[in-house]
Amino acid sequence: MKKIRVDLKERSYDILLGAGIIKSFPSILAERKITRPLVVIADNNFLLKNENAIKEIFREVPNKVYWIKIPGKESSKKLDMYGKIVNEISSKGIMGAPVIIALGGGVTGDLAGFIAATYRRGVPFIQIPTTLLALVDSSVGGKVGIDLEIAKNLLGSFKQPDLVIADINFLKTLPARQIRNGLAEVIKYGVIKNAELFKYLERNVDKILAVDKKALERIVYECVNIKARVVEKDELDKLDIRIILNFGHTFGHAIESASGYGTLYNHGEGVAIGMVMAAHMAVKLGEFNKNDFFRLKDLLEKYGLPTRAKNIEREKMLESYKLDKKFIQGVNRFILPEKIGKVKVVENIPVKLIMETIEEYIGK
Description:
- The protein is of the alpha/beta class.
- Helices cover about 45% and strands about 15% of the residues.
- The protein has helices at about 25-30, 45-60, 80-90, 105-120, 130-140, 175-195, 195-205, 205-210, 215-235, 250-260, 265-285, 290-300, 315-320, 350-360; strands spanning about 1-5, 15-20, 40-45, 65-70, 100-105, 125-130, 145, 155-160, 165, 335-340, 340-345.
- It comes from Candidatus Omnitrophus magneticus.
């Protein structure tokens, strides 16, 4: 088992990483003296394959456990689902504040975390990510929220987990598309902060796509460590440090929104296209080497990720793009690569270049 500490003073927490670590869940709770009732908000897709094994582990804890199943789809991150779950928790007659546990992917973690941030003005929160995307990205850092029809994550908060339990073995049961979904974020970390990780991804495509345990544990550790160190320096995204984690997300979120939140393009696929579009603009601005652009594009394609979007209404995408939370007083802001392993924030990119990029990569 590896332990990564996220040092945020009174909000500090541990990320426990390893293959089979979920089996130690009862002892982990006991060591940390967590005795409150547990409300487990669980991805139904995950439970379909793992329910018996997981519930057997949870039966070993002395805590009272309440289970709430949700569809692990972006469409679950809505106000009506939020209200439904909060009402369900309230109706269970739980005395005092429970611990909310997210058992699932990024959608489950975002929704459960937003509930933990707002129910009774905040209750303890544990993340147990079960997808590669959640392991390397969304389970760490405290950003939680739900979507509105017009754009993603418009209602949100910061709620750091009290603990993250990251079990690599969960990845064995994931469909190939879900592995690729997470690999987009892994590639992002290589571009923004770790050129050696990027090279490792280039050299080990077959091994990683075959869900090799050692290879995945290495890349998950590298990504989580990068994110932990960035979050420590800029927890609330106020200092233009944490913003680099959004490389590819400006266009990526707009693509997700315009395509119906996961029905056509999931998060990782949107980010993959968004990274190529941002890199394309960086090349046009003279900020990024053309050879590195093709290294990025080729790597995404080797992992089976899209590098342009089809069947998207550009007008709908532009509506969401204009609501991007990184923009300040109407001034656009993008994270653009300078080289593999380093990015920077660029403001006020010419609208003509942005529109040309959309024309190039977003088609009907």
